[in-house]
Structure formats: C-alpha cells, structure tokens
C-alpha cells in the first residue's frame, strides 16, 4: 500500500497539470461552440478523466522505471 501512495505522490503533479491545462483549453474550445469530443458535454468531467489517465500512466512509468 505504501508503494501506491509513493507513486501517487510522485505522479500527482503530472495529473493535476494536465487536468488544469485541459480545463483551460477545453473551456475555450467550448465557448467557441465546439463541443465535439467532450464526455457528456462537460468540460470538467473530460478534464478529470484526462488528468486521471495521465496520473495512471505516469505512475506506471515511474513504477517500471524504479523496478528496472
């Protein structure tokens, strides 16, 4: 369990950064009228999913890099 917490702490910056960046970008895109590709038409949900996926990928990369 400690390994998961350590990986999460090391990878959190990537997930939060991608969420904030996509929140800004998708928000601007939605204001211009382009809602294609949004999950449920929601910028917040789509950005949350992007952030979570990036967090998970970074955790996997960190874990693989640490075990080699």
From TrEMBL:
Q: What is the superkingdom listed in this entry's lineage?
A: Bacteria
Q: Which residues cross the membrane?
A: 6-26, 38-64
UniProt KW keywords: Membrane, Transmembrane, Transmembrane helix
Name of the protein described by the UniProt record: DUF4190 domain-containing protein
Q: Which organism is it from?
A: Cognatishimia coralii
């Amino acid at each position: 369990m400690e390994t998961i917490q350590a990986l999460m702490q090391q990878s959190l910056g990537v997930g939060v950064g991608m969420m904030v960046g996509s929140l800004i970008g998708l928000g601007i895109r939605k204001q211009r009228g382009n809602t294609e590709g949004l999950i449920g038409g929601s910028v917040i949900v789509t950005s949350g999913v992007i952030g979570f996926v990036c967090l998970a990928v970074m955790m996997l990369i960190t874990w693989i890099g640490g075990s080699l």
